[in-house]
Amino acid sequence: MPDKIETLIVADVMNSWPETVPVFIAHRMACPGCVMAPFMTVTEAALEYGLEPAAFAADLARTIMKVKEDAASA
Fold first, then answer.
1. What's the chain look like in SS3?
2. Is 24:68 a contact under the CB 8 Å cutoff?
3. pLDDT in single tens digits along all 74 residues of the chain
4. Which domains does the chain possess?
């Protein structure tokens, strides 16, 4: 997992870890399918939706870590 998920591009996060898409949806974000996803960082998207960037990035990181743990135990 990257050290600074906040700096990653939204589309890259969703493409690299499709399991994060429900996290965006749970936060009522239109990022999946949005034309701006390839251009906005996770921080920029969080701010656009009035979310605290570090907390949102932590939600994404938890999902990514779960995916990695599940893959390691399979």
1. CCCCHHHCEHHHHHHHCHHHHHHHHHCCCCCCCCCCCCCCEHHHHHHHCCCCHHHHHHHHHHHHHHHHHHHHHC
2. no
3. 556 999 999 999 999 999 999 999 999 999 999 999 999 999 999 999 999 999 999 999 999 999 888 889 87
4. 5-73 (1.10.3910)
d(CA 4, CA 12): 13
| 41 DSSP β-pair partners | 9
Distance between CA 50 and CA 41 in Å, rounded? 14
β-bridge mates for residue 9, sequence order:
41
- Rounded Cα distance, 67 and 27, in Å: 19
Please state, in angstroms and rounded to a whole number, the distance separating the CA atoms of residues 53 and 43: 5
